[in-house]
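Now for my pick.
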Amino acid sequence: MLEKERNLSDPTSEVIFHAYPQSPVAEKVRVVFGIKGLAWRSVEIPRLPPKPMLTALTGGYRRTPVMQIGADIYCDSQCIIRELERRYPSPTVMPTNEQGLMWCLSRWTDGALFDQTVRLVLGTAGDSLDKDFAADRGRLYLGEDWAAGLKQANADLPHLVSQLRAPLSWLNAQLSDGRAFLLGPQPAAIDAQFYHVVWFLRGRWADGPSFLSEFEDLVRWEDNVREIGHGTSRIMDPQDAIMLARNSEPTAVAGVAAHEPQGLLVGQSVAIKPDVNGGEQPVAGKIRYADAETVVIERVAADVGIVCVHFPRSGYRIDPT
């Protein structure tokens, strides 16, 4: 409780969440806020680029969500959830000893499973899909020739539904003994990781509710996760978030762990971007910290001062510059 009280009283330790309400990945993190009962500040960002107030903090990273604590900026839900668990260990989102397996499984829920869900939602939207939104998300999830990919997704709808039906049936079986959450009586990170896919299906696919109704135990679990809530949030102006970063000092430690496969060194200039061809701008900076899970770069800009931007190693490419 003392940790949470400090989060309210010390502006430099406040959790600031840059996202928009419709983002499924942001919903994943909001569930983690709920599990931990956190108070947090909400900065709403545009659904589509440009996102100048966000990229001022990140150095170009435009995906949703981003978490800020003072002058430390956390990109990708992997980094965000790990940092929340480190800072606020109780209630934990890792209630069993299978943390490694949960993180391994999360690379599938956030990767292939989520990508299939996005293709299904985009493929069923048809002419109702906003053209700018289609171009932006199509480029991210369907590649450079996204228009052809969108047509293929529409043609593949029965196949895509079948590919989602299998894992949902597995989840339903996992819950068939009446347990409240996937691992037992306590909610965990893996609940949030699967829930954001189900939340997206229900809310963004017209046939989602009828499709999900087949899985009675899954729907019961979905209700349990929804009831957790999102903690307590207060709106924050994006300019105030930038000013807070400028007036704060990063807290990231410096160093590189042993067995570094890319030979990274503290102070080395690098560029980081997602390890997919999504046409995204890399983020440039100097290595501050690196280990098997995380890389942190330090960057300096007139509008935000010195900030440290945290990325996962998994799913991101680091290139010397």
DSSP finds twelve helices and eleven strands in the chain. The mean pLDDT is 94. The chain has two domains: 2-91+233-320, 99-228. The CA atoms of residues 96 and 183 lie 8 Å apart.
